[in-house]
Write a structure and sequence with these properties.
Distance between the termini: 36 Å
CATH topology of the largest domain: TIM Barrel
Number of domains: 3
Bound molecules: 3-methyl-2-oxobutanoic acid, zinc ion
Number of helices: 17
Oligomer: single chain
Length: 517
């Protein structure tokens, strides 16, 4: 291994979840947390417990389930009630961290907090001390650090370390920094804060200028030893630094950075897919590392070179990030053992029950489709991964549509494996009719905001993937499903989105949520 280890702090479940339309329920957060643990993330920021009872529950369940495998972190403003909620939510974790933040820039001090410098220092110090009553691992973030006067930033960092902070995070909250500027800020702290070696310096960059990854890497060069990032760069506005890009830059250019991470890079692609399916945020095709085209060589001269010697045009091997592309893999006669092997090679870990369900789907698919590709298998797995989130299941549906006739759909659903309810509806087309029938049965009026269809692989018999975004009572929910029958894929995707809305309909307390950081 090369040089120091860089701590990978993932905030997909906190900063990432703040992205509009990306909110996840507890079951979904647990699913993402499981994937992050398997990916090898060192610290998982699981949420902001004081924000809502749902956030508190999610952090507690993640702490209970995964707190022996990764450090579970909870965010907290510099307020006693927030710190106490964070401490309580983390109770069950063996490895826990409280992350306390307080804005330090003049703009925030004057307009948001109406506090002067000495009040900021006092509040920050008291908050770190209070958090230390719950655990020893404390992170302090001077929010909007990049726009904070450097001498004041140094003072805040020094005082919070003296109060017990073990990590000092330097957020570029508004994505304002450039690589050399951020490098200077980190270097300045290292050179001017007398007790800086008693804490880890962390980078936290937003992507408003498209520089989040570059800035984070500049921080590593300047001596930061923790990077905060999210899967697929998810996050508010333009998002956070993308975990997969940071990790692969550090690995591919180990010669230059001289550091390493503990990430199992073969899980990057499956994790990116999982987060995209759960949040409904599509990964752009040409996205670095995890985009569908990231390893596609179109130009003849490149293909020629790659065929002769891969390193001519490839700086990373697709398999190192778990990219499977369009490999033709299995057919109807492939056995369960070959199927399991392939799934492991693709970077997934399924328990026996889940494996059996996906294998059954595979056998059914093999009846309809001659050639099955890795991308088909990935789609089948993702289709099943969110199963446990669905109370309502599709039993069967029938549609009729054609020229000069009113499209109709009859749908039958099961709730929690029991009651079977059927209803029928008409619509603009067969898909619209199915959607309306689903809404009638679940008594959940929804508005379709986005509908997207793509083919998972090539050929007329390819599986179609449908993604939908619906809004219910002003909130957006996503669903994604695959099938060789596009109407069925649409029905399943819509049902998944409605299931998410239905789960959210369950009673929660009505305490007002604090503003998000
Ligand atoms: O961007 C930011 O400043 C944050 C802090 C809460 C760390 O997310
Ligand atoms: Zn942030």
């Amino acid at each position: 291994m090369t040089g120091d280890r860089i701590i990978i702090f993932d905030t997909t479940l906190r900063d990432g979840e703040q992205s509009p339309g990306c909110s996840m329920n507890t079951a979904e957060k647990l699913e993402v947390a499981r994937a992050l643990v398997e990916l090898g993330v060192d610290v998982i920021e699981a949420g902001f417990p004081v924000a809502s009872p749902g956030d508190f529950e999610a952090v507690s369940r993640i702490a209970e389930r995964f707190g022996d495998r990764s450090t579970i972190c909870a965010l907290s403003r510099s307020r006693d009630e927030d710190i106490d909620r964070a401490g309580a939510a983390l109770q069950a974790a063996e490895q826990k961290r409280i992350h306390v933040f307080l804005a330090t820039s003049a703009i925030h001090r004057e307009h948001k907090l109406r506090m002067d410098k000495s009040q900021i220092i006092q509040r920050a110090v008291e908050s770190v001390q209070r958090a230390r009553e719950y655990c020893e691992d404390i992170e302090f973030s001077p929010e909007d650090a990049v726009r904070t006067e450097l001498d004041f930033l140094c003072e805040v960092v020094e005082r919070t370390i003296a109060a017990g902070a073990t990590t000092v995070n330097i957020p570029d909250t508004v994505g304002y920094a450039t690589p050399s500027h951020y490098h200077k800020v980190i270097r300045h702290l290292r050179e001017n804060v007398p007790n800086i070696d008693s804490a880890i310096i962390s980078a936290h960059c937003h992507d408003d200028l498209g520089l989040a990854v570059a800035n984070s890497l500049a921080a590593v060069e300047a001596g930061a030893r923790q990077v905060e990032c999210t899967i697929n760069g998810l996050g508010e506005r333009a998002g956070n630094a993308a975990l997969e890009e940071i990790v692969m830059a550090i690995r591919t250019r180990a010669d230059y950075f001289g550091v390493h991470t503990g990430i199992n890079t073969r899980k990057l692609f499956p994790t990116s897919h999982l987060v995209s399916s759960i949040t409904g945020m599509k990964v752009q095709r040409n996205k670095a590392i995890v985009g569908q085209n990231a390893f596609a060589h179109e130009a003849g001269i490149h293909q020629h070179g790659v065929l002769k010697e891969r390193s001519t045009y490839e700086i990373m091997r697709p398999e190192d990030v778990g990219y499977s592309g369009q490999n033709l893999v299995l057919g109807k006669h492939s056995g369960r053992a070959a199927f399991r092997d392939r799934i492991v090679q693709l970077g997934f870990e399924l328990d026996d029950a889940a494996l059996q369900r996906v294998f059954d789907d595979f056998i059914q698919l093999a009846d309809k489709k001659k050639e099955i590709y890795d991308s088909d298998i990935t789609a089948l797995i993702e289709n099943r991964l969110s199963d446990n989130l669905n109370n309502w299941e599709l039993v069967r549906f029938q549609t009729s549509a054609g020229t000069n006739m009113m499209p109709t759909a009859t749908v039958e659903l099961q709730k929690n494996g029991e009651t079977v309810t059927a209803d029928a509806a008409t619509g603009d087309g067969p898909i619209d009719a199915v959607f309306r029938a689903l809404e009638r049965i679940m008594q959940l009026p929804a508005r379709l905001e986005d509908f997207d269809v793509r083919s998972v692989s090539g050929g007329k018999d390819a599986q179609g993937e449908v993604r939908v975004t619906v809004s219910v009572s002003g909130r957006e929910y996503h669903g994604k499903a695959v099938s060789t029958d596009i109407i069925e894929a649409a029905a399943q995707a819509y049902l998944k989105a409605l299931n998410r809305a239905d789960a959210n309909r369950e009673p929660t307390t009505t305490a007002p949520a604090p503003p998000q950081p």
